[in-house]
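Supplementary Methods. Inverse-folding protocol.

Structures were first reduced to a discrete structure-token string of length 234. This string, shown here, constituted the complete conditioning input.
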């Protein structure tokens, strides 16, 4: 298994954050099932794959953006997509596999991988007992920059932060108010929710565990081009 991570592989917007790449085909090397289209991941192999991913992610240092590289995969069953997509994202953002780690999915030119990931997040949103419509993950190769479902104001807020690299709550408010009738605190709420989803990183000097509005908070773009992971020397 190859993890691409070096001291010089820093995130372009987040000081101190590093980049790492975990390749699904490489994780499957011990028991591959190849086709002319790539690696087939059966339902039986899916659980072993998740365990391997959890082990590798757990060993990575805090403040790491992890590129889950799906390039070279031809198909996975629904349960594996659920576990590798929405379920793993939620566990990462909850800190179950280490403090301040986030996921990005690399799909290369394989549009069907993005489609399968999109469907996994749609299913997760539709089956959520809390009836939330916001479940998504970073996928820079897609037109929107993510796969999943987001309410329009969250999608617009994410696009603005990604476009500028970082924005404060007030800077985001000044842009959102051109299209939405909202208070300044609502802009920070957008960043808070997007941070909970793992789509951006929100920094606030307020250390209270419960949510408090902070108009001085700043949101940082997490997503980086796939080439930043693939061109990192081993």
């Amino acid at each position: 298994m190859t993890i691409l991570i070096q001291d010089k592989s820093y995130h372009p917007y987040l000081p101190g954050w590093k980049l790492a790449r975990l390749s699904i085909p490489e994780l499957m090397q011990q028991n591959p099932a190849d086709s002319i289209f790539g690696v087939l991941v059966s339902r039986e192999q899916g659980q072993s794959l998740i365990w391997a991913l959890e082990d590798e992610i757990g060993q990575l240092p805090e403040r790491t953006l992890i590129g889950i590289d799906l390039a070279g995969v031809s198909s996975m069953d629904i349960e594996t997509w659920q576990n590798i997509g929405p379920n793993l994202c939620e566990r990462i953002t909850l800190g179950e596999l280490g403090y301040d780690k986030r996921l990005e999915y690399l799909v290369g030119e394989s549009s069907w991988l993005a489609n399968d990931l999109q469907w996994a997040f749609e299913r997760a949103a539709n089956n959520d007992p809390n009836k939330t419509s916001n479940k998504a993950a970073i996928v820079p190769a897609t037109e929107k920059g993510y796969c999943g479902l987001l309410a329009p104001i969250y999608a617009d807020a994410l696009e603005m932060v990604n476009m500028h690299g970082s924005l404060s709550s007030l800077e985001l408010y000044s842009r959102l108010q051109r299209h939405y009738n909202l208070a300044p605190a609502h802009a920070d709420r957008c960043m808070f929710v997007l941070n909970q989803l793992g789509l951006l990183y929100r920094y606030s000097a307020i250390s209270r565990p419960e949510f408090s509005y902070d108009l001085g908070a700043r949101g940082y773009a997490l997503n980086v081009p796939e080439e930043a992971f693939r061109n990192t020397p081993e």
